[in-house]
Amino acid sequence: MTGPRLIVDLDVLARNLRTVRERVAPARHMLVVKDDAYGHGLGPVVRRAHAEGVSWFGAFDVDSAETVRAVAGPDVRIFTWLAVGADEIARARGLDLDIGIGDADLLEEVAASPAAGAAQVHLKVDSGLHRNGVRPERWNGFVTRAAQLQRDGRITVEGVWSHIAEASDAEDDDAREIFETAVREAEIAGLHPRLRHLSASAASFARPEFRCDLVRVGAFAYGIRPAGGPSDADLGLAQVARLTAPIVAVDGDRVKIAVGSSDGLPSSLAGRMTVVADGRSHLVERIGLHSIDVRSWDGARRGAEVTVWGSPAPGVTDVAEKIGTIGEEIAVRLARRVPRDYV
Ligand SMILES: *Cc1c(COP(=O)(O)O)cnc(C)c1O
Asked: For 221-256, what is each residue's pLDDT tens digit?
């Protein structure tokens, strides 16, 4: 062992998936797998989640949706919300994806794409985040046009959705009101979307009224808790991944460990994060490109394994909180070339 490794415990993933499913029922769980399943590795995560009964995947882009389809087969539903241009739309349709649509031009492009049958679409209203989505003042025209395209057999409107900040209850409540109004307007326009979806991890757990028919949960499934929020234990979740690296040198009062900023560890964590070796915590004093330094201890020896983050070391959100970011960022920054080991 010469460099860092990410140990991904798929049994922990399976337990988290069960916890999410029970928590949000009767709403269904769409497992969000963007950014290579939050850095855990798309293929193995999808394979295990599928075996555990997950039947909805949120894949963000068409490339990763293609991998999900190849791994999980024809029966799962795959939601993508970044299909751009005629080629990608054609691929999305060929893969039988559910396509998220947040603007009027994309609606026309999808409806006009040459694939046989009707495209399965989910219409997105901008409920205040301004991260694409149709503005409420344009929504009526948008759903009226969608209803026309549905009558023409070009599209089937399967869902209406939005995305919320999950930073304050008051803002989320305002967003939900905009969302509910948008659903009613879609129905008045003659649409019958069976799937309303609005919430990600935090609101899905804490606020039943946000669950609607389907929840898009990523972070919590991987055991990544929100910064400044409830603990893993309170949520009934555990972190799926653990980053390890070996000691490469014991040099006087310094121990060098083979992981660095080129592997995706933010160098601003120097002096702030602790790692665990020989059952003890060690403050990271320096973060270089390829190694980190901690102070030496009795028994420190070359080749011994150090846990950089994840049990028994602090989790990614604990680490993130030291530099004012979120756990997802620590997880997805880990370089793709760091091997993932599945246990
Ligand atoms: C990332 C994302 C999610 C999942 O968010 P988590 O907080 O990780 O559960 C849900 N919906 C959309 C649109 C996203 O981009």
From this structure: 999 999 888 888 899 999 999 999 999 999 999 999
- The answer, yes or no, to whether any atom of ligand 1 lies below 6 A from the CB of 93, is no
Q: Give the count of beta carbons closer than 10 Å to the beta carbon of residue 123.
A: 26
Task: Report whether residue 200 contacts ligand 1, using a CB cutoff of 6 Å.
Answer: yes
Cβ(225) to ligand 1 under 6 A? no
Residues 6+ positions from 231 with CB-CB distance below 8 Å: 225
pLDDT at 130 over 90: no
CA dihedral 69, 63, 13, 240 (to 10 degrees): 160
Question: Looking at the whole model, is its pTM more than 0.90?
Answer: yes
Tally: H helices and E strands in the chain = 12, 16
- In short, whether 226's Cβ falls inside 6 Å of ligand 1 is no
Q: Which atom of ligand 1 is nearest to the CA of 38?
A: 8
Q: Is 254 in contact with 240 (CB distance < 8 Å)?
A: no
**Do you know the residue count of the chain?**
343
What is the Cα–Cα distance from 81 to 100, expressed in whole angstroms? 4
Tokens 């009795």 belong to 298
| Ligand 1 binding pocket includes 217 (Cβ within 6 Å) | yes
Strand, coil or helix: 268: helix
Q: Are 214 and 195 in contact (CB under 8 A)?
A: yes
Contact status, residue 179 vs residue 165, Cβ threshold 8 Å: no
pLDDT tens digits, residue range 34-76?
999 999 999 999 999 999 999 999 999 999 999 999 999 999 9
CA of 38 to the centre of ligand 1 (A): 11
Measured over all CA atoms, what is the biggest interatomic distance in the chain, rounded to whole angstroms? 76
- Is ligand 1 within 6 A of the CB of residue 48? no
For residue 204, give the ligand 1 atom closest to its CA: 9
Query: Is 82 close to ligand 1, i.e. is its CB under 6 Å away?
Result: no
At 196, list the tokens. 């309303």
Residue 139, Cβ density class (10 Å: 0-12 exposed, 13-18 middle, ≥19 buried):
buried
Rg (CA), the chain: 22
| For the CA of 217, the nearest atom of ligand 1 | 9
